[in-house]
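Risk mitigation, structural track. In case the binding assays with potassium ion fail to produce interpretable data, a predicted complex structure has been prepared as a fallback.
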Amino acid sequence: MDTIFALASGSGTAGVAVYRLSGPAARAALEALTGRAAPPPRQAVLRRLRDRDGGEIDRGLVLWFPAPASFTGEDVAELHLHGGRAVRAALYRALQALPGCRPAEAGEFTRRAFENGLLDLTQAEGLADLVAAETEGQRRQALRQMGGALAALYEGWRAELVDCLALLESDIDFTDEDLPDDVSAPVFGRLADLAAAMRSHLADGHRGERLREGVRVAIVGPPNVGKSSLLNALARREVAIVTDIAGTTRDVLEVVLDLDGVPAVVADTAGLRCSSDAVEQEGVRRAMARATADDVRLLVLDSSALPADAAGFRELLQPPSIVVANKADLAALPDGYRFGGSVVLPLSVRSGEGIGALLDRLSVMMAECAAPTGEAGITRERHRHAVAAAADALDRAAGFAGGSGSVALELVAEDVRLAARSLGTITGRVDVEEILGAIFSRFCIGK
Ligand SMILES: Nc1nc2c(ncn2[C@@H]2O[C@H](COP(=O)(O)OP(=O)(O)OP(=O)(O)O)[C@@H](O)[C@H]2O)c(=O)[nH]1
Ligand SMILES: [K+]
Ligand SMILES: [Mg+2]
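Fallback model:
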């Protein structure tokens, strides 16, 4: 087993940079660098670090975490040196010259922690999410997952399935002796309860995934109504080009907003109209694609040029959607004005009127789409896929449960086994070698 090392803190110029070494040669490496015995476990001590030729690298705090009480479960050393590229380069040169030491690959520390049983795959993913979290909601969700909330849920279900399986198997052994039904019947009830729990866990409106990835909001509407102006106002910077020429925007432009802890990926799109310009046609095609695919539609109209009716706006009004009438500084909305059945918010990007009300409305919508529920929720397609596969297997098992004799019971047992296996792939309790690379390679180096 190699001993791996990496910068664990952010790269670039900083007061302090933290380096981590993990593996069987960590202690020897620490002692070679400092020229002294490793300090007592988990105590920071000041040491001078030198390379093989005695050249000083830097002076800093070093810590020693003997296995198994470390992040990876292996021998780990931590070096707190001065931040900066030259220090890092000198340290890496010295470490690479030591036997058995090499730079870590992305996610390798966490992978070793997983392989040593210190965390399961959902906790490892939670850790990656916490490092990447940009909003309060994301941070809380990641912390909960890292704390093992999802692992506990899935492992609990899996344990229940394994228990049912044991009962079914004992029943299979006795079927020929005509003992069965009394043992199997309660098992079928438990399996049905589990399948129902999985279905309700799946019917979460994709909240966790949305919170992790951002709720997608498409700003759409006719040309020249002020869509790009609105994007710039929301972003508080000049992201999009604004002119008085209809058809200015062609490409889809995105900004990420933090709306009460939920990230919103807000996209400005081309004004929708028939055009003979091939570039604009492509822009309109992309705008419609976003209007259809995104989580929320923000339809912008022009108060001074309201459409005669909402016919032709059906796709843009698909709920959840918000309708605003911009340029309120030019024309007031008729009393009680509604568009396609929707309440219309008056807005003026120019004067700022209505921006606050729009942000409030968006925040409410974000909370409906993605705010954390306080329960352990699915945060990745990987989880969703496996839970759905488990629920499908249990539904199949329920179909066989009506049959009689050992053959039917064997079919039930096989599906229960598949369901348990599927849940096991989420936490990594069953053999998942093929998915490990995909999961850990997305980590940053030093994690
Ligand atoms: N009076 C007034 N003019 C506005 C307001 N918002 C935007 N405008 C003007 O409306 C014109 C069009 O603005 P854009 O933001 O480019 O409109 P758009 O919907 O992105 O236009 P396309 O990308 O061409 O579809 C510009 O001249 C803006 O300055 C507003 O609240 N009041
Ligand atoms: K324009
Ligand atoms: Mg525009």
